[in-house]
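Morning!

This is the sequence you dropped in the shared folder:
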Amino acid sequence: MATNRSNISIYLLIVSIIITAYFFLVVIPYGNKYDFFSEGLDPKADKIPYYFLMTTPILIGYVVFVARSIKKVAYLCCLNYPLIIFNIYFFSFICLSAETGGAVLWLMIFTILIPLILIPISFIAGLIKDIKYLRRNDFYNQ
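The structure's back. Tokens below.
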């Protein structure tokens, strides 16, 4: 059972890293090119459906995957938890900019305290859970 739970932990970390790379390397350059993050310009109307399809289904799939596997995470919690919080917080605003453009990013400024508080707390909680996992599985005594 512990091996399967460790595999879920690694899979979730890998998926989170892939999602982060996808948004930073594909979605954000595309959004910059077509004014999705510009406050003064409206996004190009013909690019909105493509941008929506590039962002929203990916984020929804990621959230569903996280919701189904978060309780099975047994190891690497100190990396998984903060990365999940960052991805969901940051990329939900990126998805919302499909219709409103860069104006929605101002909401990010007003709600920045949420991840600034949750990320360190989740890192510490994950670190405690990882230490308990290592002690329980006797990794220190080998």
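Headline: The chain is about 75% helix and 0% strand.

More detail when I'm at my desk.
O.
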